[in-house]
Amino acid sequence: MDQIRVLLIEDDEDDFVFARDLLSEIGAGRFEIEWAQTYEQGLARMLGNRFDVCLLDFRLGARTGLDLLREARREGGGAPIILMTGQGDQAIDMEAMRSGAADYLVKGEIDAAGLERSIRYAVQQRRMEEERVRLVREQEARRLAEEANRAKDEFLAMVSHELRNPLNAMLGWVTLLNSGKLDEGAQRRALEVIEHNARAQAQLIDDLLDIARVASGNLRLELRPVDLDQVMEKALDAAYPSAEAKSIAVTADLDRPVEMAAGDPDRLHQVVSNLLSNAVKFTPGGGTIEVSLKRDGDEARITVRDSGDGISAAFLPYIFERFRQGGKSQSGGLGLGLAIARHIVERHGGTIHAESRGEGQGTKFTVRLPLQG
């Protein structure tokens, strides 16, 4: 064995000297020993330092070594513990092992060879457990890296698809316009389609630029006093036409005024607009969307609740992650809006949370933002 750091928790000096001499008999210079004479000293040193093994006396004044063993394990003390009892007591020994002791020794029966075997076993078990944990972490890191690379590959394929669709539509209608065979009505229709697809492609590019700024930490906020009710009204005005086209009833309950001391109204509008556009997109015709803005102590609480497709329990934990797609999010767009929204909200010192009872049972998003004092 290499040099071993030993913590000896023992309130009797004679027993400390005895244990120290046994360690010297095993091999002078092989052990670096620290002595703690009380329960409190022992627990503090065990939690505050890294030891290879701890030799723990059963009797520590009014407390016992079993108490310390349990408390150390609860608080995350990781050194293997060998409990030393004054007399063999099977009940105590079994309880020590159940509580996480690496071994137990009877003081009157301890000799150098037995102590060395016990320490060697405890240290080897500790190192084997550390190696197991290291391998598990490496495997998990590889799995996460592979999953991230796969998600990015899928995302890039989707980006290509989403950018190509409006481009193909525009090129197709431009070709028809150039043919000179379209009547006046068809020409107006062609221009409307081209404009719609150009705006859609511009939004896709804006999302890509924003997510790149988020990744690099360069998403800028232009901070100034903000009336959140005005931000909400502007976003609602933009969402009403799409909702009416699907016969979706939108209701709004807005406190006025709700003011932030400092915020970026354009970015906050982007957050609310994203939540509303998602609600419209994933709510079937004839559904409902409920929007509210309320004061809640020193916070503003924005909620957007819909009766739409909902979110599966499996996907809900990943709803705000980049490059993660829920099934129907592929019906249009890159699925980056929520990742961008979370970053904007957190940059404002707030939080955003999603709730859903499952697929087909609607979704509720809640945004909390700090208000001026």
In whole angstroms, how far apart are the ends? 62 Å
> Based on DSSP secondary structure assignment, what is the total number of beta strands?
14
User: What number of structural domains do the residues give?
Assistant: 3
Lateral arrangement of strands in the main beta sheet: 2-1-3-6-7
Shape-level CATH architecture of the largest domain? 2-Layer Sandwich
> Beta-strand level of the residues, as a percent range?
15-25%
Q: Over the alpha carbons, how many angstroms does the gyration radius reach? A: 33 Å
Count, helices: 9
- What's the main sheet like? 5 strands, parallel
Low-confidence runs: 326-331
CATH superfamily of the largest domain: Histidine kinase-like ATPase, C-terminal domain
Compute the average pLDDT: 86
| SSE class | alpha/beta
At the first level of CATH, the class of the largest domain is Alpha Beta
Please provide a written account of the structure.
The chain has helices spanning 13-26, 39-48, 65-75, 90-98, 112-179, 184-216, 228-245, 265-281, 337-347, and strands spanning 4-9, 31-36, 53-57, 59-60, 63-64, 81-85, 103-106, 224-227, 249-254, 259-263, 288-296, 299-306, 351-355, 363-370. The strands form 4 sheets. It has a 5-stranded parallel beta sheet, sandwiched between helices. The chain has a 5-stranded mixed beta sheet with strand order 9-11-12-14-13. Helix content is 51%, strand content 20%. It folds into 3 domains: 4-110, Rossmann fold (3-Layer(aba) Sandwich), CATH 3.40.50.2300; 150-216, Helix Hairpins (Orthogonal Bundle); 224-370, Heat Shock Protein 90, CATH 3.30.565.10. The protein is built from 9 helices and 14 strands. The model is unreliable at 326-331 (pLDDT under 50). With 373 residues, it is of the alpha/beta class.
